[in-house]
Write a structure and sequence with these properties.
Layout (H helix, E strand, L loop, with lengths): L4 H6 L4 H20 L9 H8 L4 H11 L4 E4 L6 H6 L3 E4 L8 H5 L8 H11 L4 H5 L2 E5 L3 H10 L5 E4 L7 H22 L5 H24 L9 H11 L4 H21 L9 E7 L8 H7 L3 E7 L4 H4 L10 H12 L11 H13 L4 E7 L3 H16 L4 E6 L6 H14 L2
Parallel strand pairs: 1-2, 1-3, 3-4, 5-6, 5-7, 7-8
């Protein structure tokens, strides 16, 4: 493992606090991931990334910056990576998933703010995450009120661009999002100094679509009666996908999918026959938030799908590659991204439809609807989701949690009882 201390120092990081963070991660990763048996060999790539998560990729980004490329830090699946890539920019995810960063966020945010937002702000203000130090521009969006206010704080010392998300999905709302994407493209062109051409955007659309196809292949293998990969491992792949180079991510996900498809043919499962199949839906699980998956999969069940932003919402549906002009391409991008069914929309019947469809496709025995504490959007929508599942005869368990381990045993008791109830 290379020594990145000099790089972190040049980034202005708080090395003492960062050492404390780095000391905790290996143990947590070992307990959650390396304790598993019969893992796919291809998971070694993602294990390697996590082992050096604040070194390998940050060092790559800095080398690209030396060549004049700009790094855009994003927080949401609605920000179109295609536009940044077309201008020779680089996209990296920035959402925080660690309790370590929450206290720093609470210094400037109400405690009644969701932990993802508090952790993201704390990671920047505490100077303990290199990705937050490296990004040349942050790109936010108006998917919730907590984020809107967080952007004002993060934008004080970093260039911040905010995309205004429509709150409905009428034709005029899709038109509005198309205009937002065009405006964003203009900002990206000016910031990078590179023009976005139809040829470059066509290539970028193809790159991101290929990444989606590779991730979808992994999920497709999870539909099999033989479960070839744990939910924890699939979640890890998805979390890293937000940070990694898109072409490399595609290659590694395809390699994993090849192995999983062979496992399905050979009848190789990572769970005993008859293990109950769980669909997790709700709020996203940013790295290193592995708590719920770990509890579920050490309580007698297997997570076979996630209807979350760190799950199917990230890769389902593709941008139409037929467009030949920028106008056609921007419209195709707008239509694809407006097909994501986030709880920020009203009405949001599409998300209920997605959950019911996925429950059938993945042959699930039950659904766990998870809400990060103080996320009023998903918490409120939980009523509609759980009613629809009960009406369809699908067992459902609603859970509210945060990043701490304080409720771990309580969650385990509830989840074990739920799994037992599935019969």
């Amino acid at each position: 493992m290379a020594n990145y201390r000099g790089m972190w120092e040049q980034l202005g990081m708080d090395l003492e606090s960062h050492d404390q963070l780095c000391a905790v991660l290996p143990t947590a990763f070992g307990d959650v991931y390396l304790s598993q048996e019969n893992r796919p060999e291809a998971m070694s790539f993602w294990d390697m990334v996590v082992a050096d998560i604040h070194g390998i990729r940050p060092a790559e980004l800095i080398e690209e910056q030396k060549k004049g490329r700009k790094v855009f830090g994003t927080f949401c699946v609605y920000v179109p990576d295609e536009v940044v890539i077309a201008a020779d920019g680089i996209v990296t995810g920035l959402c925080g998933g660690s309790q370590f960063w929450v206290p720093g966020g609470e210094q400037v945010l109400p405690k009644s703010t969701c932990p993802l937002i508090k952790a993201s702000v704390g990671a920047r203000l505490g100077r303990t995450c290199p990705f937050f130090r490296i990004a040349d521009m942050y790109v936010g969006e108006t998917t919730c009120d907590g984020k809107k206010k967080a952007w004002e704080i993060l934008g004080k010392d970093v260039p911040m661009y905010i995309m205004d998300m429509p709150q409905m999905k009428r034709e005029k709302d899709i038109e509005k999002w198309y205009e937002e994407i065009k405006d964003f493209a203009g900002v990206v062109e000016k910031f990078t100094g590179n023009a976005i051409t139809p040829e470059k955007l066509k290539e970028a659309i193809h790159i991101v679509n290929e990444k989606r196809r590779a991730l979808a292949r992994v999920y497709e293998a999870r539909k099999a009666d033989c479960i070839p990969i744990s939910g924890k491992d699939a979640l890890l792949m998805m979390q890293i996908a937000f940070f990694d180079d898109p072409v490399r991510c595609t290659q590694m996900a395809d390699k994993l999918a090849d192995e999983l498809e062979q496992r399905v043919k050979d009848g190789v499962s990572v769970f005993p026959e008859g293990t109950k199949r769980i669909l997790v839906t709700g709020t996203p699980m940013a790295i290193p938030n592995w708590k719920l998956h770990h509890i579920i999969e050490t309580s007698g069940a297997a997570v076979v799908c996630e209807e979350t932003c760190t799950g199917t919402r990230y890769f389902e549906n593709y941008v139409d590659e037929a467009g030949q002009t920028l106008d056609e391409q921007y419209r195709a991008i707008a239509e694809r991204y407006m097909g994501i069914n986030c709880a920020c929309f009203t009405p949001n019947t599409g998300r209920v439809d997605d959950i019911l469809r996925l429950a059938k496709e993945y042959h699930v025995d039950g659904v766990i609807d998870v809400n990060l504490k103080f996320c009023c959007l998903y918490d409120t929508e939980g009523y509609t989701v759980e009613k629809a599942l009960k009406d369809a005869g699908i067992p459902v368990l609603g859970i509210e949690t945060d990043y701490t381990d304080a409720d771990a045993e309580q969650l385990r008791t509830r989840i074990e009882a739920f799994v037992e109830m599935l019969g």
